[in-house]
Structures are given as structure tokens and as C-alpha cells.
Structure prediction request, 419 residues.
Amino acid sequence: MRATRSAWLGFLLELLLLFEIQVCDVTEARQNHMNRMQMSGNFPDSREEQLVRQKIATDVQKYMNLSADPCTDFFQYACGQWRRYHKRQLRPDELSTAQQLMETKISEQLQQLLTQPLPTQHHPNGYSGPSMTNVRKVRAFYESCVAVEANAGERRRFLMKILKDNGGLRNVPNSNWQHNRQWVQTLGELRRNYGLDILLGLEIDLNLQTMKGNTIYFGEPKLTIIPAEHCNALATRGAQVRDEVYELVQQQVTENLRDWFGMDTGEAARFAGDIIRFEFELCKQMGEQDIQKPEEEFPPTIQTQIYGARSRTGQERLRRQKGGMTLTELTSEMGNHLDFKMLVEVILESQYPSQVYLRSPEYVKHVVRTIKTNNRITVGGYILYVALNELNQPPEEAPSQRARQCVPGDATSLSASFG
Prediction:
């Protein structure tokens, strides 16, 4: 573990050095430009300068994760939100970006953690009892995923096992359908065993109310069936679930169900229609807090202070600092339609008496309203499909590529297990 941390520090130092070189280049170019303007008798307008500085400050701040402790993880503090704003697929002839290099490095290190021998019980770097249980679960999933041969038959058996282990589906024969099973239990077990962030986001982060210790924040999920560019508040304004882009997603879900479980076309289409309509409603509130309001909605005194865009990070920090409540209080406030206490206890496998916070309050309320207007079979089916779609191993992938793809995508969950 010490070697891993040393490697990380070396990698971060190299990255920071590259960043410093780029900043110096930009600064030198800007200084040369200013000198030329002064020699020609042209001086920039002070308001323009203010706008430029405000824009640069906003860009820098939005990449930071102010909820992280810089003394514990400075990189997460300084660059924790970078990935959120830099997701671009490279063309085949392009070189890798710093983000891709970093992701590759992280993936390689996670693979090493998942394949290296476990330390003995009394080893200085050994795991505690509960941590060892979680580590074994993650490793068991990784090993079973890698062992799946790249053919359709093995893949179907792999997905069917996941389905059976999590309560099954009513319209899939021999899937261990449990009609009395609560979908909250399924949601919690999928998060605990596979790190899947479905329906409702859950993060463990620094408690900004007390500025010490960690707490739970609820917000938007990381996983959706509909692509993110079409699953957000802006994209769904004026849109209909029967628009072509959503119809194409529904067709893909239908084809997947037929391929995975041999489901009848009509039954698969009905199931796909139900869960896409359900998710389309969820999409209507996703990203709502990131939509910037026009300046006229702010008092004049504030307008004069913000020439550029507002800081999302600062807004998010203020939202997190709103008063928390216990899981029982939150469940009651949401009309008992979503058992937050049960969800967290299934994930943590223990009680959680501390207060929790809402990172996206309006989305959480919207989830509860949407759940209320749909039956539990639709909600449970949606949760299971998102999980299967995420864990599905494409049959065309070469065995050499499967190990990296089998590394669980939730690095936060892994870090909680491996320490």
C-alpha cells in the first residue's frame, strides 16, 4: 500500500509540473501581448480585464472539489471536478489527454489491488474484519467477471446469475422472481456489492457543517440508460418520450432483453417502454441545479460583483451546508415512499444514526414523486436493468481487454474497501 501511495505521489508531481509549465507559457504569451499593446499606445479596458480575471477564476474554481480535505488528498481538492468538465472521445489519430492517462493509471493500480495477494491477518497493512469482507466481495466479482469467456452463452449465464441473486424479474422465467422483495433492498445490495449508483446518488464526503468527519449526501445518480446529453432538465424541456432519440434507446433495451434472456418481443417492448418512460421522468430534474439563471434574477448589488459566470462549486458548498436530518426524519419528510434508513443500512450493513444531507434536494423530492406514481414492479425492473446493462460483458471483447473492463467503476467504493 505504501508503494502504491509513493507511485501516486510521483504521478501527481509529474502532472503538477506539466501544469506549471503550461501556466508559465500562457503567462509569458499574455505578458508579450500586453507589452505590444502598450508600445502601440493601446491599453485594455479595465472592465475587460475584470471580466477576463473573473472568467479565469471561475474556470479554476469549478475544477476544484472544496469538500475534499487538502491535507488528506490535495489532488482531489485541486482537481476533483476536472473530469466533470472534460469528457471528450478522442479520434483514432489523436494522442491521449492527461485525463485519459490518469484514468489508465488508476485502472492499472486498481487491477494490481484486485490481483495481488491479500495481506495476512496480523500484517501491518492488513484489513479489519468488515473491510476484509468487502474486499473479498469486490475480488470475487472481479474474478468471476474476468472468467466469463467472450461468447454469448457464457455472458447470458453471467447476467442470469446476477438477476437470480437480486430477486429476479417477473417476465423472465427461472430468474428467482421474488414478488415480495422490496426494491430498496435490491438497490442497496447492488450498490454494496458492485458500487452501482442507480436511481439515487449516495456519496460519503466531508461533513461541511462541522468541517470534520464524513457524512452521507444524497443526490443525482451516476448511471442512466438514456445518454447524459439527453437525460437532463435542459434536454427534456419540450421533449416527448416518443421523440426519436428516446425511441432508439427503447429499441436497444428491447433488443438487449431478447438477447440476454430470450424474452418475447412483445413482452420485451412493453418492459422497455415502462422503464424508459420512468427514467425520462427522472431526467426532467437532473442537472437542474447547474442551470444558471439570468442576471436579472439577482439583486443589482450582486450583479455588479459578478461579471462572469457564477461559481457552481460555491453554490454546491452552500447547498451542502443546509441543515441535515436523520435517516428516519428524511424518510418521514418524503412521505415514507422511500425508506432511506433501510437503503443505507443495507449498503453499510450497519446502522447509521448520524445526520445526512441532500446534495440535490429538488432531485431527491422528484425521485420520490416519480416513485409514488409508478408501481414497484416498474421501479424494481428499472433498477435491475440499469445494473445488468452496466455489468454486461460485450461478447466481442478480447480476453486481454476484459480484466481492465472488469475493474469496478466506482473508485470511491473501492477506496472504502481497500483503504
In short: The chain is about 60% helix and 5% strand. The first helix runs from residue 2 to 39. Residues 151-392 form a domain with the Neutral endopeptidase; domain 2 fold (CATH 1.10.1380.10). The chain has a mean pLDDT of 76.
